[in-house]
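Teaching assistant here, posting this on the class forum so everyone can see the example we discussed in section. The complex has two components, and the goal was to see what a joint structure prediction looks like when all of them are supplied at once.
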Amino acid sequence: VHLQESGPGLVKPSQTLSLTCSVSGGSIGDGGRYWNWIRQHPGKGLESIGYIYHSGTTYYNPSLKSRAHISVDTSKNQFSLKLSSVNIADTAMYFCARAWGTPGGVYDSWGQGIFVTVSS
Amino acid sequence: DIQMTQSPSSLSASVGDRVTITCQASQDIRIFLNWYQQKPGKAPKLLIYDASTLEIGVPSRFTGSGSGTDFSFTISSLQPEDIGTYYCQQYDNLPRTFGQGTKVEVK
């Protein structure tokens, strides 16, 4: 399976960051697979943002303070991230990833990542 | 959140050396521990899941062990292509959390 992130690389403070992950070589509707967003601040470690299952079930990391929203479009085989009220601390590389496990804890396929800068 | 603490934060070793990284969880995570390799500018790659199971296609020089709170990851014979940063990650609890990473360099 191949995952590819897309979206703007520059977002202004207080605006909403919007990214899409296109999935090919596999179906988002595959059972037992969870579709994730993970980010990495420059020179830092990895932080899980959340996931969505094809049914629409979602989970968000509480650290994002309810700013994150993940949606899925099974007809396009895509899922998306919206992160509202961004600030400079949201500048990071954003990865989409597929996961399996209970639920979705083993990230076995990743997109190449997209770097998003928050700046005015 | 479960805190994952890796040691060391970086290491330099010679080709052929045995390299070991440790990862400690702040609470019992049973065997729900994965290891990833990240090369500069690339996405992480899954190497080991469930503490000791090698992902398909990953060379057998990579091994993992442990359960509960203490885990280790070993490269039995370091190769030049093994340079990168290695991360542990737990999936016993939400949110999933990663260690801070161990940067591996070849002398």
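For the discussion questions: The interface with chain A takes residues 1, 32, 34, 36, 42-46, 49-50, 55, 87, 89-92, 94-101 of chain B (CB under 8 Å). The longest strand of chain B covers residues 19-25. Think about how each of these relates to the inputs above.
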